[in-house]
Design brief:
8% of the residues lie in helices and 48% in strands. With 490 residues, it is mainly beta. The chain has a single domain, classed as Porin (Beta Barrel). The chain has an 18-stranded antiparallel beta barrel. It is globular, with a radius of gyration of 25 Å. The N terminus is likely disordered.
């Protein structure tokens, strides 16, 4: 009996070793970014309630991103990235009880612990045999081209997609693909009422040309098309319920057909000057129209920007930049049309500065970014990567924002248009922003950061007083932020 048991153990060990040997055929590489931040904010809504500034918050937030590459060979790998947070200490994923195993609630439904990780990326990356054509299939990060601002203001997010990168010549490649942005009919939902039919999906198709044929000059023209149903966010909740598509008198249950086009441009031919520019145009037409907009609703507009960096200094990089996005006209309720550029989701990275548009490294837990609002122009100066002491660097931003939306738009429309005080500027409103961000590199992988921000707003009391009497009575007040960050990246 002992001999049989010993033989069985040998067979099991051989099977396990064979499995390990097979698994070891894939090389595993890991990288990640673990960030902890103490964040103090004052008056992020620019309001005084009862004449007293009450909007003060202090939070300690944390976010963990961990990525793995499972590399079979130079032509095939799988990519997995998970994320915990962003969440404040003491709440949700970082509160007491977080991370407990799944259990059954009193009603018998499954309930997972609050500490569960969410999927950020999960896709297969491979080249077609005998070619240089690269495919990426699965849940991934995708962004339309952008030269200024750190990311696309139209589409820059994580979603399920199939994309292909096709080299044409040494200086030309094409990137095209299809993505499913939304699907209200979730097979994994634990709630009743899943939807059927074609109105619960939101899809996008895109094509990008990377043109780099001439030394010191590159351009990336692109086009995209999206179709989103009237139930993409649930029964009776369509694309126009999302801030990036909402417009004058839009109702919640309308679908959208939209297209965009643009180009990102970079020129280094006049070294040490580097010129970067973007043009983005989009138009969305609402379907399943309500009687409010007489079947003429829609949204169209543009955003253009330009930045010039001077790279001839060793201790810093000065940069001047300008951006302009179209705003609402005073008669936007005529037919329900909007004059702001439509935006998909909430673009993750586009920003000018590091406070009002939420750029920089800060998690900015307590502020709602206005990147989907549009309707402003901005003129700014940045001093980037100032290095006067070893391992210590600074970045300074000075920016003036001015609205391009007609004030009459607020008088003629109702709530639900993606318009809120503090992140929607009429042409009578403006902001001054000053940011001073410091980073000390403790180790190559570990940094300590301090981000300071100040915004001095000027909102027209008469314009906003028609929306809320408090805006007229108490006016706007300055906002401040101070964020202390510990960032471990490897």
């Amino acid at each position: 009996m002992n001999k049989k048991f010993a033989l069985l153990m040998v067979l099991v060990a051989a099977l396990v070793m064979g499995t390990i040997s097979s698994a070891a055929a894939a090389e595993i590489k890991a990288n990640g970014a673990w960030q902890i931040e103490a964040d103090f904010n004052v008056n992020n809504d620019f309001q005084k309630k009862g004449g007293v500034s009450e909007d003060k918050t202090f939070n300690i937030a944390q976010r963990v991103r961990q990525s793995f590459q499972f590399i079979a060979n130079e032509n095939l790998k799988g990519v997995l990235e998970v994320q915990l947070g962003t969440a404040n200490w003491g709440t949700g994923a970082l509160g007491i009880g977080a991370g407990r195993s799944a259990s059954l609630t009193a009603t018998g439904s499954a309930s997972a612990g609050n500490g569960n990780f969410m999927l950020r990326k999960g896709y297969v990356d491979f080249k077609w045999p005998g070619t240089k054509v690269n495919f990426l299939v699965g849940f991934q990060s995708l962004s339309l081209p952008s030269a200024v601002g750190g990311g696309s203001p139209v589409l820059d997010d994580h979603f399920a997609a199939a994309a292909a990168v096709v080299p044409v010549t040494d200086g030309l490649s094409l990137v095209g693909g299809f993505g499913r942005l939304y699907d209200a009919n979730s097979a994994t939902s634990t709630t009743a009422g899943n939807l059927s039919g074609s109105h619960n999906n939101g899809d996008v198709a895109f094509l990008i040309a990377n043109v780099d044929m001439f030394k010191g000059f590159s351009i990336k023209p692109w086009v995209a098309y999206a179709s989103l149903g009237k139930d993409v966010a649930g029964a009776g909740t369509g694309a126009t319920a999302l801030a990036g598509f909402a417009g004058a008198n839009s109702s919640a249950n309308e679908g959208v057909r939209a297209y965009w086009g643009g180009a990102a441009f970079t020129m280094t031919a006049f070294d040490p000057f580097k010129v970067m520019a973007d043009f983005n145009y989009g138009k969305a037409t609402w379907n399943n129209q309500s009687s409010l907009n007489n079947a003429k609703g829609g949204r169209q507009g543009f955003l253009a920007d330009i930045a010039v960096d001077y790279t001839g200094l060793s201790m810093m990089t000065p940069s001047v930049f300008f951006a302009y996005s179209s705003g609402e006209s005073g008669n936007s309720t005529d037919g329900g049309k909007s004059d702001r550029m439509p935006v998909v989701g909430t673009p993750q990275n586009y920003a000018l500065g590091s406070f009002w548009l939420q750029g920089g490294d800060s998690l900015n837990m307590s502020y709602n970014a206005p990147s989907t609002t549009m309707g402003y122009w901005a003129l700014g100066l940045s001093l980037k990567d100032i290095k006067l002491i070893d391992k210590l660097s600074h970045t300074v931003h000075l920016i003036y924002f001015k609205g391009t939306n007609d004030p009459d738009f607020l008088k003629d429309t109702t709530a639900g248009n993606g318009v809120t005080y503090s992140n929607f500027l009429t042409n009578k409103d403006s902001l001054w922003e000053v940011d001073v961000n410091t980073k000390y590199q403790i180790y190559d992988e570990l940094s300590l950061g301090l981000e300071l921000g100040y915004i001095n707003p000027s909102f027209d009391k008469d314009t906003w007083g028609a929306v809320n009497a408090d805006y007229r009575n108490y006016g706007s007040t300055s906002a401040y932020k101070a964020s202390l960050l510990v960032n471990y990246s490897f």
